[in-house]
Design goal:
Strand content: over 45%
Helix content: under 10%
Structural class: mainly beta
Distance between the termini: 40 Å
Radius of gyration: 13 Å
Shape: globular
Order of helices and strands: EEEEEEEEEEE
Length: 123
C-alpha cells in the first residue's frame, strides 16, 4: 500500500515562492506517475502538474505553466512542486497523487492520494 505525505505548504505573499514536497512509502516509487492536484474552497479538484516515472516528461495546467516546476527524485521517493510567482488564485489545498498507469491529467486515474497541504497566497 502506497502512502503519500505532503509538506511545505504555508502562507506566502503574492509574487513569492514555495516548494512543496511529497514523500512516498510502501511501494515502488519509480514505477508510478506522480501528480499534483489542488482544491480551493467550493471548487472541484483541479489538475496542476504531473511527471512521468523517469522524470523525463512533465505536464502542467495552463494556469501554472511557466510558474510551477515539477520534479522527482526516485532515489529519495520524493516528488516536488516548485511554485514561483504565486498568485492569490493559487491558494488551495495541494494534494500529491500516484498513478500506476499512464494517466496524467485525470484525478480518476490516480489510485493513491496524500492528505493535502494548505497553500495560502496573500495579496
Amino acid at each position: 500500500q502506497v502512502q503519500l505525505v505532503e509538506s511545505g505548504g504555508g502562507l506566502v505573499q503574492a509574487g513569492g515562492s514555495l516548494r512543496l514536497s511529497c514523500t512516498s512509502s510502501g511501494g515502488t516509487f519509480s514505477r508510478v506517475v506522480m501528480g499534483w492536484f489542488r482544491q480551493a474552497p467550493g471548487k472541484g479538484r483541479e489538475f496542476v502538474s504531473a511527471i512521468s516515472t523517469s522524470g523525463t516528461l512533465t505536464y502542467y495546467s495552463d494556469s501554472v505553466k511557466g510558474r510551477f516546476t515539477i520534479s522527482r527524485d526516485n532515489a529519495k521517493n520524493q516528488v516536488y512542486l516548485q511554485m514561483n510567482s504565486v498568485k492569490p488564485e493559487d491558494s488551495a489545498v495541494y494534494y500529491c497523487a500516484a498513478s500506476p498507469g499512464t494517466n496524467y491529467y485525470s484525478s480518476a486515474g490516480y489510485r493513491y492520494w496524500g492528505q493535502g497541504t494548505q497553500v495560502t497566497v496573500s495579496s
